[in-house]
Amino acid sequence: MAKEDQMPIVEVNADRNYKVVIGSGVLDQVASSLDRRDYMKALIIHPSSVTDIAKRVGKHLEDADIEVSYFVHPDGEAGKTVEVLTEAWRAAGDNHLGRRDLIVGVGGGATTDLAGFTAATWLRGVSVLQVPTTLLGMVDAAVGGKTGINTVHGKNLAGSFYSPIAVVADIDVLATLPDAEFRAGMGEVIKCGFIHDKSISDLVAEEGPISKSSLHLIQLVTKAVKVKAKVVSSDLKESGVREILNYGHTLAHAIEKLENYEVRHGDAVAIGIVFAAHVAEELGVGSRAWRLEQESVLVKQGLPTSWHCENFDTLLDVMGSDKKVRAGQVRMVLTSNSGCTAVRIVQPEELRLAAIAMGVIDA
Hints:
Layout: E1 9-12, E2 18-23, E3 41-47, H1 51-63, E4 67-73, H2 82-94, E5 102-107, H3 109-121, E6 127-132, H4 135-141, E7 146-151, E8 154-161, E9 166-170, H5 179-195, H6 198-207, H7 217-234, H8 249-258, H9 265-283, H10 288-300, H11 312-319, E10 330-337, E11 340-346, H12 348-358
């Protein structure tokens, strides 16, 4: 049982208000986090890698007299396809999931994206509870109500804004997470420090590298979730300030697509942050000192800060299919200091010069 002082709760105000429960041993809060007591059935969507955790979640729901069924999807981005979504719908139908029933996502960011989109589209919307099992899922994918799947044209291009009824983030489940996955998740945590809360990046700079056993982990997860909750609460559908959460994502999403999603999202974001810092420096928005400071924090955590592409035109074409592009123009989130953000239209030549300076492409 989680102790009260070890269980921070972050409120998110969106199309529906919900709580993010964070802490050690909070998995047993799943049933008590439900917004209603009359759920009859729950479909748990999860990859095989977290079957044990999914079964624990299922047991808590069964103890609350909820009939539980399971849908196992391919791990990672391979689980975010139209074909897998179709199978998830089939599972919902086979188990007679009704409009007053529940879908539960237990897994990483790919799982919570898939579970959320399945819930948003099944019977035009059923409740979804998210139980992230990766650091990335806890601080990013499970919070904020973005759901989606990938298409041949890029990542998360088919999706919806659909808030969960609650998020339960138990850091104890991170114990079995591979170190590389945990480290990649720290890329999104550090991003929150650069765009809004300097205490996050300062803590990593002072204490890093942060590990799964760090005494600061609950604190960092809570801080990062608070950043996302504050932004999402003021702009659910990314019409304004929410765009700052895409810091580093312009290049990150391109890297993921060009590398067939074999690069971890948090690693790609770290590289994308460095690229954005080079663009900011090229445009005179940010300084060389600020770029080097960001690189230093990322390197201290063991995150990658470089990547190479053979063909700039190919890279530019992929960037041009990103969701943030408007009227064919690449728009990037840039920072001039911690918490000082701006969204700028960046011309192809400016992107090319920044890519050369960073070593993304050859001169």
